[in-house]
Amino acid sequence: MPRYEMTFEAPGPGRWTQDDGHIPVPMTRFLAGYFDAVAAAGITSTLTEWGDFIQMKRATVNGFSYMQETLVGVPLGSPDAPSVDQPEVRQRIERQFAVHHDKMW
Question: What are the boundaries of each domain within the chain?
Fold first, then answer.
């Protein structure tokens, strides 16, 4: 019989998927605290820089890394598409045009 019982609860509302492609085994508490903050910041800045409509959140539960992908400008769990009426969506569209026009790759 185990010494303690582990419970796995979602890190927050919405759909979360385990990131076993990057972190296939449980992380230590030290690494988890560092990894979630740094990975989320890096992914967010890269997606914003390229004008992508995806935003990502990261969290760790019992050492396992989870991620949640949502669309910019869409409330969590909503089936709606992003609206060009929202400033952040317009900024991402403008950024996509700039990336392709300037051939930033």
Answer: 17-73+82-101
